[in-house]
Amino acid sequence: MKSLYSILIQTSEEEHKYIVSLPELGAYARTQGDSYQETLKNAQEVLELLIEDDQARKTSLNKPLVININKKKN
């Protein structure tokens, strides 16, 4: 599933884990993992579950933040 939502991955030195949050989807859209790859996979699963839940409830998730890095200056 392709999505355009931001995924923020940080390290927790205290717990020796990676912590991920999905900023556009709220404070509770978080997960963690022991490796960067596992954490990214977990984030994708959380995102997919949120999208499925949103569709089942017929509600609307916050829109993804889109940044155009190729914008030309005049």
TrEMBL record:
Q: Which residues cross the membrane?
A: none
InterPro entries listed in its UniProt record: TA_system_antitoxin, TTHA1013/TTHA0281-like
PANTHER family cross-referenced by the UniProt entry = ANTITOXIN HICB, UPF0150 PROTEIN SSL0259
- Protein name per its UniProtKB record: HicB-like antitoxin of toxin-antitoxin system domain-containing protein
Source organism of the structure = Gloeothece verrucosa (strain PCC 7822) (Cyanothece sp. (strain PCC 7822))
